[in-house]
Design brief:
One of its GO terms (molecular function) is catalytic activity. Pfam families: Exo_endo_phos_2 (PF14529). The protein has 3 domains: 204 residues, Deoxyribonuclease I, Chain A (4-Layer Sandwich); 63 residues; 94 residues, no CATH class. Helix content is 32%, strand content 20%. It is flat, with a radius of gyration of 32 Å. The protein starts with a helix and ends with a helix.
């Protein structure tokens, strides 16, 4: 600032220097997890620091921490939960961002299980280390039965099912346990050990749908770090400075990316010709205004359609709205206790199913005309005449007409936002 006051410079240079640089990257709101066997954290602190600063994961699960569990190094922006191991290569740590709600559920030797709060769910995320020659702690894994859990770690389990060249005892028992419980694996795309082509660092879960993983070619440990992208959203609390010369911050979710330069130029041109026409009221200025306005509207429409297409493509890749919104209806919904039919309370499941089946079968069945009704007979006659008409090309229909007719089918008040019949909701008792 003092340098600007005491040196000669042009206005354009000052504007260029003080121009606010808005965030140009899209912030990933999905939960990201990094799994890394550090092979003694005290000797690989720099590796972890570089990984955290480069990828900024919400959770960093470390195995092979060693003696660092007694005095954990401090990493800016992260809080650590540690647990000692059974040997010098044991020891685990769960490091999570300070803005994340995380609490310990269970701590055992070579195992940590935490509950992490996301936008629409509470997840059980754990880290485990299985020493070579031992079996995974299945008795601990079974405690997560019928729950949404994700346990990552160094299992030292090899099996040909997940890309290893041969099987070992730990891998065979883990495969049998997965087959018996119906659980699944979250596997990396390539080998995780630098000393072999085996995949021994991975995750186990009740459902791996929507998870993505990538092995990072970084760090100096004997294991490659792995980054996992979860199909769960995290509340985004990142902010950006509104201007460079004040301390006003705004949430990043309120930021709207600017238009491309060519679209801004067209908008300014339209405004210029609009001012000229309002000032002089000449036919020449009016024609220019109409021409540039038509060009601007066409370019803006193409830009908006492209942006909507990109968003739809992104949503089609397992990114639906329920991963980014909190489901507030489910916790407050009353328990289902039966149906009231003809002033009788039905609680038998079979009878309830039969009653609903009869109702919807009648509701969705084809209408039966009343042949004694002249209006019905006239309608059937008209329909028969239409079926025998020659196949002639239809007249072009405008988009506005289609939209106007389509809006007539909008849900009425007799249906809720999910399209559920008010008649059925009335039958459900509280």
């Amino acid at each position: 600032m003092i340098n600007e006051w005491n040196t000669r410079t042009c206005i354009s240079d000052i504007n260029t220097k003080w121009k606010k640089e808005r965030p140009t990257h899209t912030t990933n709101t999905n939960l990201t997890i990094i799994l890394f066997n550090v092979e003694c954290l005290n000797t690989h602190t720099d590796d972890v620091d570089l990984i955290l600063s480069k990828h900024a994961p919400h959770l960093c699960l470390l195995t092979g921490v060693g003696k660092a569990t007694e005095k954990m190094p401090v990493f800016p922006g992260y809080t650590a939960i540690t647990q000692a191991g059974t040997n010098s290569f044991g020891g685990k740590a769960v490091m999570y961002q300070k803005s994340l709600n995380c609490k310990v559920v269970e701590k055992e030797t070579n195992f940590i299980l935490c509950e992490v709060e996301t936008t629409n769910a509470h997840l059980l995320i754990g880290v485990v280390y299985v020493p070579p020659g031992t079996l995974p702690p299945f008795q601990i894994f079974n405690k997560c039965k019928n729950k949404q859990f994700f346990i990552f770690g160094d299992f030292n389990a090899k099996h040909t099912t997940w890309g290893c060249s041969k099987n070992n005892t730990s891998g065979i028992h883990l495969f049998d346990w997965l087959e018996a419980t119906g659980n699944d694996l979250i596997l990396p795309t390539s080998s995780t050990s630098k000393r072999s082509n085996a995949i021994i660092d991975f995750g186990i879960t009740d459902s791996s749908q929507g998870w993505r993983s990538q092995v990072l070619n970084e760090a100096t440990s004997d294991h490659w770090p792995i980054i996992f992208d979860a199909p769960f959203a995290i509340d985004n609390s990142i902010t950006y400075k509104q201007t460079n010369w004040c301390s006003s911050y705004k949430p990043i979710k309120n930021y709207r990316s600017p238009w491309p330069p060519q679209l801004i130029f067209l908008a300014r041109t339209v405004n210029k010709h609009r001012r000229d026409y309002r000032k002089y009221r000449s036919q020449h200025d009016l024609e220019k205004l109409k021409t540039w306005r038509t060009i601007f509207i066409a370019e803006r429409t193409a830009f908006m359609e492209e942006r909507i297409t990109q968003k739809l493509e992104w949503l089609s890749q397992d990114n639906n709205i329920w991963k980014y919104t909190r489901n507030t209806f489910r916790p407050f919904s009353p328990s289902f206790k039966g149906l009231n039919v003809n002033q009788q309370h039905i609680t038998d499941p079979n009878e309830i199913v039969n009653t609903l089946a009869d109702h919807y079968e009648k509701h969705f069945s084809a209408p039966l005309p009343n042949m004694s009704n002249e209006i019905h007979k006239q309608a059937i006659e008209i329909f028969e005449n239409l079926t025998h008409m020659p196949q002639m090309p239809l007249k072009a229909i405008k988009y506005d007409e289609v939209l106007r007719e389509w809006l007539k089918f909008a849900p009425k008040k007799s249906y809720d936002s999910a399209g559920t019949s008010a008649f059925l909701l009335k039958k459900v008792t509280n």
